[in-house]
C-alpha cells in the first residue's frame, strides 16, 4: 500500500501544481505564525521551531504504530494520502518558468531576471549577474525545490513512514519559513542532515535517467564529499547526466551561437524531463522493494 498511496499522491499533486492549488508552504507559514515575535537576544533559538515539527511527527509515528498493533493500519492510508498532498508539491513554478523562457527567447535578460529574482536566495539577486550565472542559479533552485518537495518526502516516507516524511519536510520548512530569520541558518544545517542521503541517491538516479557516460565523468568526488550541500551535489550530477550542454551555457554559446535565444527554454525542459524520469526510476525501485517484501 505504501507504493499505491505515494503514487496516487504524486499524480494528484502534479495536477494540483499545474493549477497552482493547495500550496503546502502557506500551511507551514500559518503553522509557524505564532513565533513571529520573540524576546530580544533570543531570535536565534531553535527549540520552539523543532518542537513544532518533532511533536507532530512523533504523534504520527505513534498513531501508525498503534494502528498496526490493533489491526487498523488500512484506515490510516487516506490520512497519509492527504498529508502527502500537503508535504509534496511545488505550485507556481510552471508560469514562472514559462515567463522566464519567453523573455530569454526574446533576448530580454532584464525581464527574465525580474521574473525569477524573488525565488532566488538573497545573495544571488545582484543586478550585475550575468545571463550564465542567472540561468545556473535558477537551475539549481529548480533542482533543489523539486528534490525537497518530492524526492525528499518520498525517500523518508518509504524508509520510515509518514512521521519521518513530515519531520524531513518540516525541517526544510523551518529553514525557509520560520519567522525569526536569525534562526534559519541553524535550521538549514539540521535540514542538511536529512537531505544528505536522499540528495546523493537522487544524484545517482540521474546517471540511470540520463547520460550515464557523462555522469560518470562529472560525479567523481561529489557523491561522498561531506562538505558539499545538496544543491551543489544535484547541480553537478545533473550537469553530467544532461546532454547538449544543457547546464553549461558558456559552452553552448560557443558551440551553438545561433541557437542562444532557445537555450533558456531548452535547458529548463531538459532539467524537468530528467527529474520526471528520475521519479519514474524511484517508483520502479519502490515497486521492486515491495515485491521483495522489504517495504
Mean pLDDT: 88
Parts with pLDDT < 50 across at least 5 consecutive residues: none
Shape: globular
Structure class: mainly alpha
- Considering DSSP H and I runs of 4 or more, what fraction of the residues is helical? over 70%
Number of domains: 1
End-to-end C-alpha gap: 9 Å
How is the biggest beta sheet arranged?
none
The sequence of SSEs as H and E is HHHHHHHHHHHHH
What Rg do the Cα atoms give?
A: 20 Å
Task: Please give the number of β-strands.
Answer: 0
Write up what this structure looks like.
The chain crosses the membrane at residues 48-67, 150-174, 274-294. Keywords: Membrane, Transmembrane, Transmembrane helix. InterPro entries: Beta-lactamase_Reg (IPR052966). One of its GO terms (biological process) is response to antibiotic. The protein has 295 residues and is mainly alpha-helical. The protein has 13 helices and no strands. The longest helix has 30 residues, at 131-160. It is globular and about 65 Å long. The mean pLDDT is 88.
Q: What can be said about this structure in brief?
A:
This protein has one domain (1-34, 46-292).
Give short descriptive properties of this protein.
about 300 residues; Beta-lactamase_Reg; mainly alpha
What topology emerges from the helices and strands here?
Layout: H1 2-18, H2 24-32, H3 47-69, H4 77-87, H5 93-105, H6 109-116, H7 131-160, H8 162-177, H9 184-209, H10 212-218, H11 230-241, H12 249-255, H13 263-292
Helix pairs in contact: 1-4, 1-7, 2-8, 3-8, 4-8, 5-6, 5-13, 7-8, 7-9, 7-11, 7-13, 8-9, 9-10, 9-11, 9-13, 10-11
Amino acid at each position: 500500500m505504501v507504493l499505491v498511496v505515494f503514487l496516487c499522491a504524486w499524480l494528484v499533486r502534479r495536477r494540483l501544481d499545474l493549477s497552482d492549488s493547495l500550496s503546502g508552504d502557506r500551511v507551514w507559514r500559518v503553522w509557524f505564525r505564532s513565533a513571529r515575535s520573540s524576546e530580544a537576544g533570543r531570535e536565534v533559538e531553535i527549540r520552539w521551531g523543532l518542537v513544532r515539527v518533532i511533536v507532530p511527527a512523533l504523534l504520527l509515528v505513534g498513531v501508525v504504530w498503534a494502528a498496526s498493533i490493533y489491526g487498523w493500519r488500512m484506515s490510516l492510508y487516506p490520512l497519509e494520502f492527504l498529508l502527502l498532498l500537503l508535504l509534496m508539491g511545488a505550485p507556481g513554478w510552471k508560469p514562472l518558468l514559462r515567463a522566464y523562457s519567453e523573455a530569454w527567447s526574446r533576448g530580454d535578460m532584464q525581464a527574465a531576471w525580474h521574473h525569477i529574482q524573488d525565488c532566488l536566495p538573497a545573495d544571488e539577486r545582484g543586478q550585475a549577474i550575468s545571463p550564465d550565472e542567472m540561468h545556473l542559479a535558477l537551475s539549481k533552485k529548480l533542482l533543489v525545490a523539486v528534490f525537497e518537495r518530492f524526492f525528499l518526502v518520498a525517500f523518508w516516507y518509504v524508509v520510515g513512514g509518514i512521521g519521518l516524511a513530515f519531520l524531513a519536510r518540516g525541517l526544510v520548512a523551518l529553514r525557509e519559513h520560520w519567522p525569526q530569520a536569525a534562526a534559519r541558518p541553524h535550521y538549514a544545517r539540521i535540514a542538511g542532515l536529512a537531505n544528505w542521503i536522499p540528495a546523493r541517491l537522487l544524484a545517482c538516479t540521474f546517471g540511470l535517467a540520463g547520460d550515464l557516460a557523462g555522469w560518470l565523468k562529472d560525479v567523481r568526488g561529489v557523491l561522498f564529499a561531506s562538505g558539499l550541500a545538496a544543491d551543489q551535489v544535484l547541480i553537478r550530477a545533473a550537469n553530467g547526466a544532461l546532454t547538449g550542454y544543457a547546464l553549461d551555457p558558456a559552452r553552448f554559446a560557443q558551440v551553438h551561437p545561433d541557437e542562444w535565444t532557445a537555450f533558456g527554454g531548452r535547458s529548463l525542459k531538459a532539467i524537468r524531463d530528467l527529474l520526471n524520469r528520475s521519479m519514474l526510476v524511484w517508483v520502479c525501485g519502490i515497486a521492486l522493494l515491495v515485491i521483495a517484501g522489504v517495504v
